[in-house]
Design a protein that fits this description.
43% helix; five-stranded mixed sheet; alpha+beta; 2 domains; 5 strands; 7 helices
Length: 203
């Protein structure tokens, strides 16, 4: 079998593992898919993401578009509450690739974690708050995550970053482009125009 065909099979298998929560991340999903298929050909994260998006459409059908719209509307409502902290919608809800079980990811920028914990706690139920660590290129960064249970039953994750990082750009580990996200104003325009618009670079 040609390499392209093998890579496509691995990407499809890895996507299934991620969709059905049988793998924690793309790296583990690809490794497990290779073991299962008895090959050592790794597709890119982008290729797996394409298969994951296709699978989610196949399984969830038209309800997936409704889900993306609903999560974007909820994201906008939450961002309006957080407007003083320069919120940006990121993750699958920004991309337009949210699927069943997806949460709403929002980044905020400020100096004091204590202030936003108090602010959010007065308005929403915080299910968990903790630091996470990420090492890229030998550099380890620490971010504070606040997990929120929304009245609708959906979940949101607010990532707190230092105000000095607001102008910095980071590369997406899945699609390879910059994670720009959407501001309140940009998200409002999307919902008024094409509420299911996808923000995915061309491969």
């Amino acid at each position: 079998m040609r390499e392209k065909g093998i890579k496509a099979r691995v990407a499809e298998e890895a996507a299934k593992l991620i969709y059905y929560n049988l793998a924690a991340d793309y790296k583990r999903a690809k490794e497990e898919a290779c073991r299962h298929l008895g090959v050592k050909v790794f597709p890119s994260n982008f290729e797996v993401a394409e298969e994951l998006d296709r699978l989610a459409d196949e399984v969830e059908g038209k309800s997936r578009k409704c889900l993306n719209i609903r999560l974007r509307k909820e994201g906008l409502s939450l961002m309006r509450h957080l407007k003083d902290f320069s919120p940006r919608l990121i993750g699958g809800v920004w991309r337009g690739t949210a699927r069943k079980g997806s949460d709403i990811d929002i980044t905020v920028y400020l100096h004091s974690i204590k202030s936003i914990l108090s602010f959010i706690g007065e308005r929403y139920r915080i299910s968990k708050a903790e630091y996470s660590y990420k090492t890229t290129g030998g550099k380890t960064e620490r971010y504070f995550h606040i997990y929120i249970s929304l009245p609708s039953g959906d979940e949101a994750e607010v990532v707190v970053r230092d105000l000095r990082e607001r102008s910095e750009k980071s590369r997406c580990e899945i699609y390879g482009d910059y994670v720009t996200g959407l501001t309140i104003e940009q998200l409002q325009k999307v919902l008024e125009g094409d509420p299911t618009e996808k923000f995915i670079p061309k491969r």
